[in-house]
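To the team - zinc ion complex, inputs and output below.
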Amino acid sequence: MPPKVVRRTLDLAGIQVPLIEITGSADGPQLTVLAGVHGCEYASIAGVRSWARALESRELQGRVRAVPVLNMSAFRARTPFVVPEDGKNLNRCFPGHPSGTLAERLAHAAFTQLIAGADAVVDVHAGDMVEALEPFTLYEAGPAEDRALALATAYGLGYVLRQEPGPGRAVSGTTSAAAAQIGVPAITAEAGGCGLVEQAAVDLHVRGLDQVLAELGMAGRPASAEDGAGRDQAAPDLLGRFLWLRCADEGWWEPAVKVGDNQRAGRRGAAVHDQLAGGRGGRPAARTWRQVAPPGPAMSRKRCWRAVNGARPRGTRSPAGERRRPPLGQ
Ligand SMILES: [Zn+2]
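Output:
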């Protein structure tokens, strides 16, 4: 019997957010699937839309709650990385605060209504508007990490990254970190980017979500997982560190490597020129990225693209001289 499907909006912090509820004919786990936490990550939004549509005609056990776009104001305004009303990265605000700024209130509402109480959470991302990346899945240390690792592996991307709380953690306040803190197995899955709807990335997300369903025992594998979309799934590389490199100088970024390239220690990864207008006359402000080490390079590669399409934003140095981090994705 096909599942029952309800499409409606959910009021989260005063914002009407699209919600697709798909309830199977038999009992089973409750899975929450989020996309559009960053409003311009179109491959992930398209992936969740396509996957939910296909799920409507399949046998399902349990219940799926899918939000194709959580950060609606960023989606409408085509604003990468942040909630435009307060300039905060929504995926640094979880579990949120009920009386904070809009991003904090939206995070709190999404956390209490969609993440808490779920048996599993998948937060589907891509690189944002100016962001290319190597597909990977992220999960957090915590009481549910064994189940989170199983979901991350099932998603089928090339790299699986584990983060744990502490001073070395590159990103915090994410959906998957907040879920981990309350014992909900959760993953963040990344494929696609640069404001594009690349079919290959959409397919990776659709296949990944299907395989999460199978891992949770909520559905069998669809026929598509047996053909071309399901080929070449080697075991992922497991990474234990999320390394973000940040440039100390403003300028025009010229990468010397592409996303997915292997990088040797000591080899230049990029140069930052101090003249935005002049192409060749610029002085290399950062000549060598010796920190870009071969083991676990996926995130280093990711950093390499982050400034590919533009200069480092102005005004990133605070009056106290301490550098303020520009809001980035994930
Ligand atoms: Zn994102």
